[in-house]
Structures
1.
Amino acid sequence: MASIEQRYISLSARKVNSAQGKEQAMLIVTLLYLVAVLSVPLYSPQKLIWLAAYPIIASEMEGCGFRRIFLKSLLIIPLVALIGIFNPFIDTETAFRIGNVAVNRGWVSFISILLRGLLSLQAILILVESSGIIDTINALRKLGCPSVLTTQLHLTCRYISVVMEEVIVMKRARAARGYGRKSYPLSMWGRFIGQLLIRSMQRATDIHRAMLARGFDGSLPLGTTMRWNSSAWIWLIVWTALIACLRFIDFSSLVVQFLHK
């Protein structure tokens, strides 16, 4: 079976929610963690290393597996690297020395940007893997996020399978008429994408008309009632305290001072 069909089947069959009952708590903790990571000074990457404790511990607690989360987060490295790739050539002031080798502030900021991107994506992946994308969107709405935004996210996630169905149909039609061809000219791919856009817009129009006929008023009802339980409060209080400690206490300096005693 083609890889695109395998991905569609895995997407349709995946309904995992190991964070049942604490979706809002996990969302708040994730937002606090993102604020903590992004507020670390650009030239202090050692503080980001301590903040890596959250994705490592939380992924194992929620059954996501840090190894899988880490491997998925590596996909963002090319994008993040493009943001800071010129820093080592712009900021050439020496930050520290390793023996006779001088490391400039540009390399320090570049490493800091890479760590920020990895840790931020890992936290988001843990949230989505444990709570599920639909429950995460519902938690956003319960916390006061505008319904216009949550409805768009909800419909995008719910009906991405519709677009994949159209891709599979067109792929099978192309294979049936290709007589075993493996490669196609670039002009064919342009027509393929154009036809996919037209077919997707037609399906979206049909779905929207069906929703309007059933009383759609711009917002979707919540599928389940989210209640705060004891595990949610414990998760929120403990991780908020730990993230605050990891952010504002310089454990690197404490370790160095301890070693020099």
2.
Amino acid sequence: MSIIKNEIRNCAKDKWNYVPLSEPIPITKQVWPKGTIPLVCIRTMTFMHENYVDDCISGILMQKTTFPVRVCIHDDASKDKTAELVRKYQAKYPNLIWAYFQNENSYRHPNRKAMRSKFWEFFKVGKYFALCEGDDYWTDPLKLQKQVEFLEENKDIAGVGCYYHIINQFGNDAVFQKLDNEPRFIRFKWDDYLKGGAPGIRTLTMVYRSDAVNRVNEKISFSPKLRSAGDVLLVSSILKSEGDLCLLPFFGAIYRKHDKGLSAGLKIKSKKRKQHFYNYEGIMRLVLSSKKEKIFFWYRNFKNTIKGDIAYFRIGQVIKDALLIFEK
């Protein structure tokens, strides 16, 4: 822990003490002087991902950069072989991969924040904060390099993502989906988000400025009841108070849909759907300040939910969801 404290002290002085490489090379082949602070920290959360985590970690390790990177992996007491696989990679790249293994699942634990506090220290030191959950993976080896270069050149941007593909749990090309046929640069502002959301801004593609994320986390009293609202809460909070978000015009990741995914059950199970709407109510309470903002956000949530029900021919669910929303 003394190493981490020294790193945080140096970061407070804005000392990412490294000399950039002349050209991007794989992060697994980089050798940095002792005490070098990572410019980018990657956060990966895993739980019961034994069928997917190899793809996730491989996609991270193939990244080519001119700057130092730290890979921070949190396993939430998986009962399958996820932790075993993570340990294998950690043993192979001990200076690159910092892994933390929970003895008890923290996701629904009332003391989740305290249980994860040591892990949070791993990636506080980076100037930039990248995310890729254990069941998703990156496909472009220059993903991080492109995003960090953009953020270095555009100081007013709080975070940047890229386009991604969607596949089902079996990797079946027959259901391979594209977010957009022709990727284009998009800049999202707070007003845009209120009216239409931020399509394309998804966890697995994002790189944020760490100071923006840290300030947001300090402001928000995160309730365990909002456990599955983390991504939307983060995006809405950053757009509200820290700056715009951008989408760069390249495909760089795979978002995997499967029956054990966090959001998979929200479309089916009533208890999880109630949790879904509670999340949005919580965001309205914690982030939105004016009546106008709340009306815009509520209407967008209502419209998108009903639209999804109709698209999947869940006519009965339309009525149930309408009632759930009006309860709020």
